[in-house]
Design goal:
Layout: E1 3-4, H1 12-16, H2 20-35, H3 39-54, E2 56-64, E3 70-77, E4 80-87, H4 93-100, E5 104-106, H5 112-118, H6 127-132, E6 139-145, E7 150-159, H7 167-187, H8 196-200, H9 206-219, H10 223-229, H11 235-246, H12 261-264, H13 269-275, E8 277-282, E9 288-292, H14 298-307, E10 313-317, H15 320-326, H16 334-345, H17 368-383, E11 386-392, E12 400-406, E13 409-416, H18 421-431, E14 443-451, E15 454-465, E16 468-475, H19 491-500, E17 506-511, H20 518-529, E18 536-540, E19 550-554, H21 563-570, E20 577-580, H22 586-597, E21 601-606, H23 611-620, H24 625-631, E22 632-644, E23 650-652, H25 656-666, E24 683-685, E25 697-708, H26 711-718, H27 723-732, H28 738-747, H29 753-759
Parallel strand pairs: 9-10, 17-21, 17-22, 18-19, 18-20, 20-21
Antiparallel strand pairs: 1-5, 2-3, 2-7, 3-4, 5-6, 6-7, 8-9, 11-12, 11-16, 12-13, 14-15, 15-16, 22-25, 23-24
Amino acid sequence: MNQTAPEPNFSVALIDTLSQSRKELLSVINKSLNAAATFADVLPDLEGYMLKFLEGQRLTVYQNARDGQEIIAKYKTGQELLEIRLPLTATSIAGYVAVSGNPIRIDDVYDAEALRRIHKTLNFNAQFDQRSGFRSRSMMVVPIKNNAPLLGVLQVINKVGGDRFSEEDMKLALYLAGLLAKKFHQEFEATDSPYDFLVKRELITLEKIDAFQKRAKKEGVTMTYLLVQEQKIPQELIAASLASYHQVPFMRYDPNITPPKNLLKKLNMSYLRRQLWVPLAGDPNEELLILIDDPSDFARQMEIQRALPAKKYIFRVGFPEDILQYLGGGSVSSFLHGLAGKMEDEDVEDSERLEEGVEAGEINENESTVIQLVHRLIIDAYRAGASDIHVEPGKGKSPSAVRLRIDGICKQALEIPSTHIRAVLSRIKIMSRMDIAERRKPQDGKILVKVKGQPLELRVATIPTVMGESAVMRVLASGSGVSFDKLNLSERNYKELDRLMLTPQGILLVVGPTGSGKTTTLHSVIGRINTPERKIWTAEDPVEITQPGLQQVQIDHKIGFNFAAALRSFLRADPDVILIGEMRDAETAHSGIEASLTGHLVFSTLHTNSAPETIIRLLDLGLDPLNFADALLGILAQRLVRTLCEACKQGYKPQEEEWERLQRLYGEQYWDELGRKREETVLFGPGGCGKCNKTGFKGRTGIHELLVNSKRLTKAIAHKGTAEELRAIGMEEGMRTLLQDGVVKVLKGQIDLSQLFRVAVE
């Protein structure tokens, strides 16, 4: 009878039941294995002993090829050493045992129907029998493995003195496979656990590994995340540890590799993200390259072969984060993808098509899966350094997309089934204290959650679209801000801004589009002058950065407490310095100018493109040109640009064409002030490493344009000069544009031109 035998629990009792002759054979086998340098050295002498011990006619021992592709058996014919190579697929008997990890006992290898009952693709290759005249009948095949990773396969053919192998024979084969596993484990220099390599190098203790594994399961994060972020172990060493344990090569994320579309279209992306594997290359008719986080998971190997049949498979081990990166979901955890997958498995109707109210089939927004998903999404976005979370409805029954904006770039992170998107949005609206019944109008709200005991605030906006409601959550930068010295200002801008902030009265503006770092810069400036001698009031919407010593006020439009009202209140509260979050209207602008003319230092922001254009914008609001010209200290325009990864950026000598372009961008009349020569300059471009997720970029820095008021500029403002006239005066007096400041940072190797042109116009 054909069957899959469970692996027994070997004990001394099993050995005690053996005959004396078998005990002696076992002793010889054990001693020979321990004495030999490699298994190949001792196999010719041991083969006869092993056959007698197992009472078989023929025996083949396969070893894992350690390339993640196949298993190999070596044998001698005369003086010639030959090899049998089998792919890791379920088409051969030994290959099936290798990928499934299951020992099997077969009564008749020519019984095709019996083989198909074990696995639908399983068959016996009779070529050897046909060439040699040998007739294979019964067979027992067992995996050689130490814990989980496959090290080889032991195959025994034809029971001596009987038609088939027994259950007792299978136990002996498994026992012998255990002895071989110890030898292979030593020979392959394998480790006992995925992180044993790190423990042996005293980078972490077993107790810490155990604690991390419990936390990873509880918090839904990966071991890689904890080992890198908290234990500060380099990813390269973690990769080496996993490769040593699984005995297959490790593969990092490579942005130049794109999973073939013809393979992905056969698979569900959410399924792949939950299962953590991805096909990276190959042809099903030949071989497929599979990246998986645990190549020792035999059940998943079998599932891969069911979902994506191929002639041969090449397995590589990789980080879960890298696999998700290939699948377009690397910004969030596999735990979050698992929650989304759990939603897919729930049998429900499309709630968007139901009438208002709770009906059969509609998902309740208080359902635990939905609650977990929204909370986890916020946590993962925060950990990924995202500034915004976009929840976007899909068309019809298409899944809804979740995108994260990281370092200014939107990235696909997650898909939510169409059946659950309304429940997810309702949960977001409940947390934001919005009206969940109102789906026709835009709404605004705020969410306050705690991440590791620290408060995290999100500003939420929902907007109705033709596909359904869309939500955007802005992750507010809570904390103490950035020091003034780390703003990456040019020498001139640093000195001038440092001088302006010490002026007792006047108005200083920081301008730029949404997300350009205006609030961070303002708080850096405020932090520099925040001393006990100064009374500082701030009105913000919302309060993102807190500092001791400041009196910070949150604007609340619902009760009529806007920026203008806050400013009027501040003037009665003995201020030295006032920060107004934004000059949104004429009333606030007028009040700010009046405050700056009556002995107060005023800071504020505006959404404009450049410093000279800001003056025109404020005059268009109806400000008196003379008063504004007298009050203005300076205007700092800025943008945030992605910076090159310091760990992997690649230097090169600029070509003549690129050098001339840099000169043109900076302005040939100003170029000599930089003192740069092409032959002495090294520029840098993106590389790609583990620290930057193979993108070549990590973090952002500012480019700035500081227009400082002067007698000439005051006169031009009073006469309502054009933006071009104001810019010309500023340039003559030392101002350099955003583009020019960006070129300087390109020459310093901090950014490259491609990123500069994303935020500045030539």
